[in-house]
Design a protein that fits this description.
The chain has 11 helices and 23 strands. The chain is α+β, with helices and mostly antiparallel strands.
């Protein structure tokens, strides 16, 4: 049975002599690039296209066509070729469609020489793109696989070839266009019946009349020319992957409730893992960050539109007041009301667009959250009830949730890659709550340590047994209650260190470990470490810094924060910066080296795209829940079996 792939999925190839069949509802250009082990295409001689259709091991069509059959013999490829990228593009024909979003989604299928399909991929979701890498064949441990890529480029062939690393991509793109133009007389006509059958299989939402020619041009309602392929009765064409769930929007019904019957051709919600990646773990990680970026950009567009409407209103009011005749009387009042009405219309239009995007993201979040693995999931996710100690760590770990004021109900997970590249700081200082007040200082310190313990348990839970250890420095012994889950489960490397002597002992041992591992790595003798030395990753929790720290201990802590992550020693600091004010600017580098988190919601994190101030919320255990104890029990059993 043939595999129907989604973007990012891969599938093994059972044979090395295959065909790649491209089908579309309009003539498209097909080609292929041959890349080396680094993913780079060295020069134009490694590109098969209508002007140079034959390369060792691959042959493509000489003209634009609605159906292509690319012949591939993987055994005949050069040993230097590690990746074959199959690309399709819309030809630059007068009156032709300029973007894939205006036509039915094309499809790529890998078949045997007898026509038996091995795997297929429908390139749904394209919009402004005019060129796209459809699929790629790649070597993996001596075998060949196919991966559904679907990477589109609004800049056309030039942008695609640039991304492939080719020199002079614009010149090569022009050469391909010229070769297509020379073969235009041989272009294959649109397969009307095939197109109807394929769209019918995709469901009623994807059906539309098939024109006699995709380049038939008729006048649109405003008198401008419009390609026939861009028109559909009753509104824009919406082509959806027949086996790919479609994101919900403000115009589509909500996902069906449990037990609710929904016709097969009705709207369906998005799916978890609909992103590029080698594994489901990676696809979910990329999908979460895609949601984060989408929310950031949608909100930025809304805020920009509101700012524009406000500035336009001010300008129009100034123009009204500049005319003495409009300062008083009904004419001036009417002009001002019209200006305010236009401003309100712009804001309402921007809000409607944002609400539509929020509806899509909310629908996606509703299916992604339940599908997250333990490392990515909230503590109230049922996935923790089936928790077992993993055999390998995940790509990332969840540090909390993020949201913006315009989308308060929608929460996006804050994921940090593993291993952690920088330490964490739980700020126990006074932080205003969303209501504008300040929590009790003692309660905030207690909550900060609870937040640190929850993070430590999560880090323990996502690592295999014995590959991650936790040590605690609690100089005053004030954190005994919050630390009870860790101490009671027996998962700490030792009892919490108290007093100045305990602080010095733990910091001295960890500093020595960092020094030894760094020297071994620099000398290329990683196996020369002292026998019995624990080389597992270590998390050091420091409570109520700088209490119990002298100048030497502070210096060692700064050293661990800077050098520790590179050799497996990570810092989790629970502190109020004001308590260390006596050190002045000496500790500024320490605070800057740590990622600041808060035990209560606070808007102190910014995204790298538009710089929004995101509200961060920690991942706390629900009141009355025993999930930490259950997880730590499994971790303790795994540690006992290992030792």
């Amino acid at each position: 049975m043939a595999a129907e792939l989604m973007r990012g999925q891969n599938h093994p190839l059972p044979r090395n002599r295959i065909e790649i069949r491209i089908s579309a509802d309009v003539p498209v250009v097909a080609g292929a690039t041959l890349a080396d082990g680094t993913g780079r295409v060295r020069d134009a001689d490694q590109v098969a296209h209508p002007g140079a259709p034959t390369l060792p091991g691959i042959e493509v069509s000489r003209q634009a066509a609605a159906e292509h059959r690319l012949a591939v013999d993987l055994d005949a490829l050069s040993a230097a070729v590690h990746r074959v990228s199959v690309l399709i593009a819309l030809p630059t024909v007068p009156g032709g469609p300029l973007r894939f979003g205006a036509v039915a989604a094309p499809r790529a299928a890998v078949t045997g020489l007898d026509g038996t399909e091995v795997a297929g991929y429908t390139l749904a979701g394209l919009d402004a793109e005019s060129a796209v890498v459809a699929v790629e064949l790649y070597r993996r441990q001596g075998a060949w696989k196919i991966r559904a890529v679907g990477q589109g480029y609004a800049g056309g062939l030039t942008a695609l070839l640039t991304d492939q690393g080719l020199p002079e991509p614009a010149e090569l793109a022009r050469g391909i266009d010229e070769a297509v133009a020379r073969g235009a007389a041989r272009a294959v006509a649109v397969p009307t019946e095939t197109g109807r059958a394929r769209r019918a299989a995709a469901g009623p939402d994807a059906t539309a009349p098939v024109p006699g020619s995709p380049y038939d041009v008729q006048a649109s309602g405003d008198g401008s020319a419009q390609p026939a392929a861009d028109r559909a009765p009753g509104g824009p064409i919406d082509y959806t992957h027949p086996k790919r769930r479609r994101a919900a929007s403000a115009d589509t019904p909500a996902p069906p409730a449990p037990g609710e019957h929904r016709p097969a051709d009705g709207p369906v919600p998005p799916v978890a893992g609909d992103a590029v990646g080698w594994s489901m773990d990676e696809r979910l990680y990329n999908q979460v960050w895609g949601m984060f970026e989408d929310l950031a950009r949608s909100t930025a567009a809304y805020r920009s539109a509101v700012d524009f409407a406000e500035s336009r209103l001010e300008k129009e009011l100034d123009q009204v007041l500049a005319d003495p005749r409009n300062r008083l009387g009904s004419a001036g009042d009417a002009a001002r009301e019209e200006a305010r009405a236009r401003q309100a219309q712009l804001v309402d239009r921007a809000r409607a667009a944002l609400d539509r995007d929020l509806a899509q993201l909310t629908a996606e979040s509703d299916v992604v959250e339940p599908a997250l693995p333990p490392g990515y999931a909230r503590w109230d996710n049922p996935v923790w009830h089936a928790y077992r100690v993993p055999t390998e760590p995940p790509m990332a770990v969840r540090l909390g949730d993020l949201h913006l004021a315009e989308s308060a109900p929608l929460r996006v997970p804050l994921l940090a890659r593993l291993p952690l590249e920088r330490g964490l700081w739980i700020d126990s200082g006074l932080t205003s709550t969303p209501g504008g007040g300040f929590p009790d200082a003692g309660e905030l310190r207690h909550l900060a340590l609870h937040t640190a313990v929850a993070l430590a348990v999560r880090l323990l839970a996502v690592h295999p047994a014995g590959e991650f250890g936790v040590q605690v420095v609690d100089p005053a012994g004030s954190g005994a209650t919050a630390l009870a889950p860790l101490t009671g489960a027996g998962v700490l490397a030792g009892p919490p260190a108290t007093g100045a002597a305990g602080v010095a002992d733990v910091l001295g041992r960890l500093t020595e470990r960092v020094d030894l591992v760094q020297m071994a790595l620099r000398g290329g003798a990683a196996d020369a470490l002292p026998p019995g030395m624990d080389v597992s990753r270590q998390l050091l929790i420091v409570n109520e810094f700088p209490h119990g720290f002298d100048d030497r201990a502070v210096t060692q802590l700064r050293y661990l924060a800077d050098e520790g992550p590179g050799v497996g020693v990570h810092l989790l600091l629970v502190a109020d910066r004001e308590d260390a004010a006596a050190y002045g600017p000496l500790l500024d580098p320490l605070w800057r080296s740590l990622m600041r988190l808060t035990p209560v919601p606070d808007d102190h994190l910014a995204d790298p795209w538009v710089g929004h101030a995101w509200t961060y919320e920690p991942c706390l255990v629900p009141a009355g829940s025993q999930v930490l104890q259950k997880v730590l029990h499994q971790v303790s059993i795994a540690y006992t079996k290992r030792t």
